[in-house]
């Protein structure tokens, strides 16, 4: 028999972010603030050309890394690989088009 004392409850907190992307210049706003690829390029330069989205390549990797650095501060605080986030969320955005989405993160 399982008693209440033997049950462990895991607290999961979620964070909602708002992402807006503009295909004309490949700029991206995170919660209304313009992201600059230079900060993430100092950590890992996936894409000298900056951000992109809608596929699983270097531009989306640069964007995913920039988002996670902005949200979590450093790689050792990332809740998962930014590459996983790239494939799941950034790669699913419409390629070559503007977007305006809310994403819920654990």
Give a short synopsis of this structure.
With 106 residues, the protein is of the alpha+beta class.
What does this structure look like?
By secondary structure, the chain is an alpha+beta fold. It has one domain (12-105). Helices cover 29% and strands 20% of the residues. It is built from three helices and four strands, in the order E-E-E-H-H-H-E. It has a four-stranded antiparallel β-sheet with strand order 3-2-1-4, with no helix packed on it. The longest helix has 15 residues, at 58-72. The radius of gyration is 16 Å and the shape is globular. The mean pLDDT is 91.
Q: What is the number of helices?
A: 3
Radius of gyration, whole Å:
16 Å
Whole-number total of structural domains: 1
Poorly predicted ranges (pLDDT <50, ≥5 residues)? none
Alpha carbon gap, first and last residue: 32 Å
Widest sheet: strand order?
Answer: 3-2-1-4
Overall shape: globular
Structural class of the helices, strands and pairings? alpha+beta
Key terms for this structure?
globular, 4 strands, 106 residues, alpha+beta
Strand and helix map with partners:
Elements: E1 15-22, E2 27-30, E3 33-34, H1 37-43, H2 58-72, H3 82-90, E4 99-105
Antiparallel strand pairs: 1-2, 1-4, 2-3
Helix pairs in contact: 1-2, 2-3
